[in-house]
Automatic annotation (TrEMBL):
Keywords of the record: Signal
Protein name, as recorded: Bifunctional inhibitor/plant lipid transfer protein/seed storage helical domain-containing protein
Domain Bifunctional inhibitor/plant lipid transfer protein/seed storage helical: 16-105
Range of residues in the leader sequence: 1-27
The keyword Membrane is assigned to this record: no
Highest taxon above the source species: Eukaryota
Short name of one Pfam family: LTP_2
Length: 158
């Protein structure tokens, strides 16, 4: 029979191993498969580096059935090398599935003024001016700049 000390050590090891290998946190929905389906079915609309394209009816139906908050939380840096979070948020908005203000969507940052940015951009292009507005200095794609201006998040100042 094993001494109690050895049994406790094995139990502790099993607990630590389980904590580090479990992808989901307690209570978190698993929507990684749903995210992959959206990436596939809505690819033409959300792909990075090209202008926004109107979504297909299949894409719209899929977005309307999806939990966009969960999908936003599931977006990784690897996903952001392929898709535009800005386009995904616009798509969700057009399908009446807007992501609430303050929701984490991609990378490490929460949505800023209902719009999500990757940490690589946020860290050096945005600063708050004396009017508590946001000024965008550089590094936005033309699509992102146009979308933000259209939504009223960018106010050109001289």
């Amino acid at each position: 029979m094993m001494p109690i000390k050895v049994v406790l050590q094995l139990l502790l090891f099993a607990l630590v191993f389980t904590l580090f290998t479990t992808r989901q946190t307690h209570g978190e929905k698993d929507c990684y498969r749903q995210k992959l389906v959206i990436k596939f079915k809505c690819w033409e609309t959300i792909k990075l580096g090209v202008p926004y394209v109107a979504p297909s009816q299949e894409c719209i139906r899929l977005i309307r059935r999806s939990d966009m908050v969960c999908i936003c939380r599931a977006i990784t840096e690897e996903d952001e090398e392929e898709i535009s979070v800005a386009k995904l948020l616009q798509l969700a908005d057009e399908c009446n599935k807007s992501v609430p203000f303050g929701t984490k969507c991609g990378c490490k940052y929460h949505i800023l003024y209902s719009y999500s940015f990757c940490s690589k951009i946020v860290s050096y292009i945005i600063y708050v001016n004396k009017y508590n507005g946001v000024k965008f200095v550089s590094q936005l794609t033309p699509f992102d700049h146009h979308y933000l201006r259209h939504q009223g998040y960018i106010h050109e100042t001289s």
